[in-house]
Amino acid sequence: MVEAAPPDPALCDLAAALPARLRFGTSSWNYPGWAGIVWKRDYPDAALSRHGLAAYAQYPLFRTVGLDRSFYRPLSAAQFAAYAAQVPADFRFVVKAPNKVTDALLRDESGRGRQPNADFLAPGPAMRDFVEPALAGLREKLGALVFQISPLPPVWLGRMPELIARLHVMLSAISDLRAAAPDGVVAVEVRDPQWLMPAFTQALRDSGATYCMSLHAKMPRIAEQLPVLRALWPGPLVCRWNLNPLHGAFGYEKARRQYAPYDRLVDPDLETRAELARVIAGTVGAGRNAFVTLSNKSEGCAPLSVVELARAVHLRS
Fold first, then answer.
1. Residues 173 and 127 sit within 8 Å (Cβ to Cβ)
2. What is one Pfam family matched by this protein (predicted)?
3. Which of 94, 212, 232, 302 has the most CB atoms around its CB within 10 Å?
4. DSSP 294
5. Domain limits of the chain?
6. 144 in helix, strand or coil?
7. What does the pLDDT look like over 174-197, one tens digit per residue?
8. Interatomic CA distance for residues 275 and 277, integer angstroms
């Protein structure tokens, strides 16, 4: 059994003061370094991965979480349902689509793309291996289904109209989620700025999907991504704060080494925090949902980043 750390009364008060439509969380939860912050004591990674979600959901500021596991291998409806059973009724999940749908190239054992993927942005696999099991298992606890399209091979970047047309077909095949999941939304995250053109925005609008703002060094800063969200307004905010720009576009390993065991803020990114707080406050202030997840690689410790971001939003509320 994994026990939650005793709740901090100040964080409980902060959580109560935040807008009900705002849901903060982190990218996954199996980090032993959060002992004393989220966990009552130090637990092994394996124990947290298997049993930590219920304790995670007791942290005052956590009302969502990123299910990134589904990116590496499709999950069944039963697996999604098992996650849903561990969290409160008002908790919502942000779920990543399998890479078999969002990678242009099939990966080998080292994780490198080697040959074209016939299932890339294909409606059938997207529905069968992702949308249908996630909706059946999570039901009303589904928040956002995120199709994070991996960086494209350079030669493909000149084929954006064709790829956007393919994306449009896939998104149009996904029926409205709201009958089973009233807060459910389909979101598309990209890692190449070449996607950010009017045809991409139109494909999202036509299909009822939204844009997942990616705070990652591969993508422009918030101000340059906002035009897409403005063109889709009114709508929800889905944002994943993935990586501090200090580390560059390929800096995950550098950030991992520098920030582990993820128990303190190492590189506070005040600019991103302030800009994101402004976007969040504007979204929920207009009565729209916001799902915001943060990685340990954003500032060093995702739970502490959530605290600081929550305080920044509260000051604007």
1. yes
2. DUF72
3. 302
4. E
5. 1-62+213-317, 63-208
6. strand
7. 988 989 999 999 999 999 999 999
8. 5
